[in-house]
Write a structure and sequence with these properties.
RpiR-like; 288 residues; 15 helices; alpha/beta; 5-stranded parallel beta sheet; transcription; Rossmann fold; single chain; Arc Repressor Mutant, subunit A; MurR/RpiR family transcriptional regulator; 2 domains
Length: 288
């Protein structure tokens, strides 16, 4: 399934005003859209047929006919679940409403990310990690937190990883990368200049690059060899740092688990060896 509505929601903030009008109309009237010709849709969204074709191509379709067909299949498969509408947080919300809305947004982001992940792409990424000499991790801001979490997870399995906190150190890290390494770049926006520069340096050294980023034809996505897309239903108060972080962490958990599952016995042995026991743990209590 090609997830027309999800793709439109993800790219909508970066579209031109005319393209946003078209996207908004489709998102609010998905059933009606499946019955409209390209000229009808242009008229209803106060745009032009050429603008409709342009937005189709932005989200990965050759034209409106292909998009309409995919949308019809999506609505038949997902029904109401496919066209969810987000309620943003407002200053008038009660504490209970904030709890409900933030939780719903985070859950929806995880479900949307699940729909964006391509299994073939994921399998190739796991293979790259397994065969790499070193996993080089990159990220700034909240994405750096995700990079650190990735480092700690693979450290448990004795997989060599490197993560540096400042952008200059990350740039040096990228320049030292070779074809024996693999870089994983976390950038929700896909437009962080420091990450773009690091990717270019890694590719110059022959290192393959995996990008974990939002669904949008950003420079990060275009430069990377493999892309794992994440979704985010961000709040007005914390755009780009709440749901997106959880979605990225979820992708890390999937990569880690898939990598660990390749050799279950060795994984269990290493997890047991690297477990740090604490007072009260059953293993500690049974020791003489």
């Amino acid at each position: 399934m090609q997830n027309v509505l999800l793709r439109l929601r993800e790219v909508q903030p970066s579209l031109s005003s005319t393209e946003r009008q078209i996207a908004q109309f489709i998102l609010e009237n998905p059933d009606e859209t499946t019955t409209l010709t390209i000229r009808d849709l242009a008229r209803r969204s106060f745009s032009s047929p050429s603008s409709v074709v342009r937005i189709c191509r932005v989200i990965g379709f050759q034209g409106y006919k292909e998009l309409r067909h995919a949308l019809t299949l999506e609505l038949a498969t997902l029904g109401e679940n496919g066209s969810h509408r987000e309620k943003d947080i407002t200053p008038q919300d009660s504490l209970q409403e904030i709890v409900d809305k933030v939780t719903h947004k985070n859950i929806q982001s995880l479900l949307d990310t699940q729909r964006l992940l391509l299994l073939d792409e994921l399998e190739q990424c796991v293979e790259l990690i397994a065969n790499a000499r070193t996993v080089l991790l990159f990220g700034i801001g909240s994405s750096l937190c995700v990079a650190k979490d990735t480092y700690l997870k693979f450290l448990r399995l004795d997989k060599p990883c490197v993560v540096n906190e400042d952008s200059h150190s990350q740039l040096l890290q990228a320049r030292n990368a070779t074809a024996q390494d693999v870089g994983i770049v976390f950038s929700y926006s896909g437009q962080t200049m420091e990450m773009i520069q690091c990717i270019k340096e890694m590719k110059a050294g022959g290192a393959p690059v995996i990008a974990v980023t939002r669904y949008y034809p950003s420079e990060v996505a275009q430069l990377a060899d493999h892309v794992l897309y994440v979704a985010a239903n961000e709040s007005l108060f914390r755009n780009g740092a709440m749901s997106s972080r959880l979605s990225q962490l979820n992708v890390v958990d999937i990569l880690y688990t898939a990598y660990a599952s390749r050799n279950h016995e060795d994984t269990m042995r290493r997890l047991t060896k690297t477990h740090i026991y604490k007072p009260g743990d059953p293993e500690v209590l049974t020791q003489p």
